[in-house]
Amino acid sequence: MNEKILAQEWLDRPERGSPKLLRFGIWLALRIGRRAARLFLYPVCLYFLVFSPAAICWSREYLTRVLGRGAKSADIFRHFLTFAGCLLDRVYLLNEQCEQFDIVVHGEEALLQVEAEGGGCVLFGAHFGSFEVPRALGRARQRQISLLMYEENAKKIRAALSAINPLLATEVIGLGRADSLILVAERLAAGHFIGVLADRNFDSRDMVRCEFLGKAAAFPRGPFRVAMLLQRPVILMAGIYRGGNRYEVFFERLAMPPERKGSEAWLDAAMRTYVSRLEHYCREAPYNWFNFYDFWA
Amino acid sequence: MTTENAMLSPPEAELAGIIVETLNLEIPASEIDPEMALYGEGLGLDSIDMLEISLVVSQRYGVKLQADDESNADIFRSLRSLNQYIQTRRVG
Question: In which domain, by residue range, is A237 found?
Answer without folding.
Answer: 3-288
